[in-house]
Design a protein that fits this description.
Residues 27-113 form the Lysozyme inhibitor LprI-like N-terminal domain. The relative contact order is 0.15. The chain is built from four helices and no strands. The protein has helices at 2-21, 31-59, 62-87, 93-116.
């Protein structure tokens, strides 16, 4: 039941963002399919985050430059530690929870960094 709920939530979230991301797909199927789908989506958001970070670094003032670099490094450590918590949970659903955590947090950081460039 929980895996069906997660699959449905993932599909709804993906559909809601499809216009924004363009080539996102619904994460359904087996657990392995869902985990792989989340990896692909996370990689897309990671690329977008990297581009936004590079642009923010170009736009940052001298005083902000080092702070943004430090913040990004610490954010990555936090994201990885936070999502590992979900990955260490019980059962195979933990893999989906961890994958969704990585995707969701990476998307949020990409959007945050993109807003710095405006």
């Amino acid at each position: 039941m929980r895996s069906l709920l997660i699959a449905a939530l993932c599909a709804v979230a993906t559909a809601a963002k499809a216009g924004d991301q363009g080539d996102q797909q619904s994460c359904g199927g087996s657990t392995a399919d869902m985990v792989e789908c989340l990896k692909v989506q996370t990689a897309q958001w990671d690329k977008r985050m990297t581009i936004a970070y590079q642009q923010a670094m170009k736009n940052a003032g001298e005083a902000q430059h080092d702070q943004l670099r430090a913040a990004q490094r610490l954010w990555i450590q936090y994201r990885d530690a936070n999502c590992l918590y979900y990955g260490l949970g019980e059962g195979i659903i933990a893999r989906i929870d961890a994958g969704e955590c990585l995707r969701r947090m990476t998307e949020a950081r990409a959007r945050e960094l993109e807003s710095l460039g405006r």
